[in-house]
């Protein structure tokens, strides 16, 4: 116990001593002045951009070393070119992202102003510090931007070097010369025997392995690939069945029918087989059925099958060996078959050459075997071309396809012989690579170009006026959507453009791939085409433009929907005046179009500030030639806001009188009572006198003039008119109707019946009914409505009598003009007549 107490005391004393020491140290530290801890540096956009630029420089150095190490590998150079392009876009993005911050700094420095000059009052220290910090950051941004520009130039230079390397590799491959001798042929025979032996062993071991261990994945891959191809084929036949099969019952098919079947049958069936082959290879490889040494051979086999099938479909579609009435070229039956067989034979030779070359690469065969195989293929194709040039494939002059044909056109025969001889000479002189490339492009590229040409011809034929209406698809559209001839003709134009697009989008990438381009090259070209097209100093993005158009269309459709919803659900239920509804709809429409235009232009990547120059130029034009347009525009806005008249009002403006049908920002449409539409510029309605019968309300006064004879009782007439008016329900009682005794006319007593209507639109009907009732009542009461009458006096003077002889002469019966008449005798006849409606009755 005593030992335990001693230990406890010792531990307590030590603890107190340590605590006291710690307290003294803390107190001393509090009494000493503490130095300010360094504040961490703020991460500014320029600092972050500088780090990204340094990282990009490191990537550029790595890419440069990789390019130098893979100068003879085209596939590796393609991948490096893609990475270099991505790096170039990243560097440009860094520079672009700094632009907003640079503009902010520039604006802020403008607000702060220059430092005070000598003799001026000193500014606050905080302002000086801010100016210095902003100036330093601006200098850093300028330095980073300069580094970015230099780095972008370096990346562009590297891309150009890669392109030049690939071009040189392609040229070296084509123009590489190999010595052709008997010893080379002997070596090739020995290598071929060895290759056949190794390939047999590899194929046998693979098939036995697959059958034992990969049987289910093999069947699954075959089933899935067949299902994919069947789906495509069935869908194609369902949609394009009439364009895939020739109707033998049609003896004289139209040109457009022949073109359509040739193009679509070749394209769709080839695509169906391509889907089958590609999906088969994909599923076999995904299920680990293919070994690394067998996979390229199976891929080459599928490619060879696809090539031969495509050429076969092309030959059948264009030459139609057994159906001359469907043939697209003027060839005899024998000529069509012979040319078709020649093309198919060349396709088979090229396909076998490619397949055997792939087998040789997989089996590790020597280069001499590949050279000899290509030599044999080039010689066979060259001889086929030369033999074909001596044929007589052209259609006879009488047009009979069974008759013996005529020779090739002289130019065509010479071209075939020159190309065939060139292939043979190139192969025998050692330029086997060039001969093989030319032979391959003759078959594949020729077939692709011919198919594209047929597709373009089909689109052109369908686009012609009144040509699309005879097709099956046009008849389907007519039945399904009840379209008229004009709409069908416009649809034909769209279908023709779609066929153009299909032919070009399928054919051009295939040709580029055949001529040495890689898939990465096509992706890069497509990316640049849709994201960055430079015209001088202007960068245009097709993808951005398409996005802007879609956004504009979307906002515009939304605006139209909002207009209809407000008009039909909100304002109609609230019984808002028709003119107010029209003004609201028009205002929302113009606002929506403006917003849609701004959104579309911004999404297209067009800087709105670039329109400042255009606006300044337009301001000059507005001051001269566009002042009337602007005046009408402003007047239209005033009419929509102030609403001196609205849609549905009865207005009188100059010589135009009628009902307002539409008010736009440029002009107002007025429909007369004869259903004639008059377009009045808004400035004339603002600056001129406009009478509005229904401005504040539709109440209006209507008048009916009535005339009676002098024999009628005026008071009775007035009572009858008021009595008849009181029976009309549409006539207002307050103000009440009244009759004015206007005047004592020349032949009648003139009255005027005046009454008010709640709606001026009913005036014509009310006045017509009242006139009928007034006429009927006056006849019943014996009140006469007088006709206009006047007195007409006709004076005719006798001709003067000649003095002298002949006064006593008897009047001549033959010449009544000789009848003597006394000078003071003036026969006068008075005629009292009545006139009615402008006619004279005597």
UniProtKB/TrEMBL annotation:
GO molecular function: mechanosensitive monoatomic ion channel activity
Record keyword Transmembrane present: yes
Keywords: Cell membrane, Membrane, Signal, Transmembrane, Transmembrane helix
Region (Disordered): 797-842
Annotated Basic and acidic residues bias: 806-820
Entry's Gene Ontology cellular component terms: plasma membrane
Boundaries of every Mechanosensitive ion channel MscS C-terminal domain copy: 703-785
Topology of the protein relative to the lipid bilayer: Multi-pass membrane protein
Primary subcellular site in the record, as a coarse category: membrane
Entry annotated with the keyword Cytoplasm: no
Regions crossing the membrane: 218-240, 261-284, 296-319, 339-359, 371-391, 412-432, 438-457, 491-515, 535-558, 588-606, 612-641
Pfam (any one): MS_channel_3rd
Signal peptide: 1-28
Domain of life: Bacteria
Limits of the Mechanosensitive ion channel MscS domain: 628-695
Compartments in which it is found: Cell membrane
PANTHER family on file: MECHANOSENSITIVE CHANNEL MSCK, POTASSIUM CHANNEL RELATED
Similarity comment: Belongs to the MscS (TC 1.A.23) family.
Protein name in UniProt: Mechanosensitive ion channel family protein
Organism: Rhizobium fabae
Lineage: Bacteria, Pseudomonadati, Pseudomonadota, Alphaproteobacteria, Hyphomicrobiales
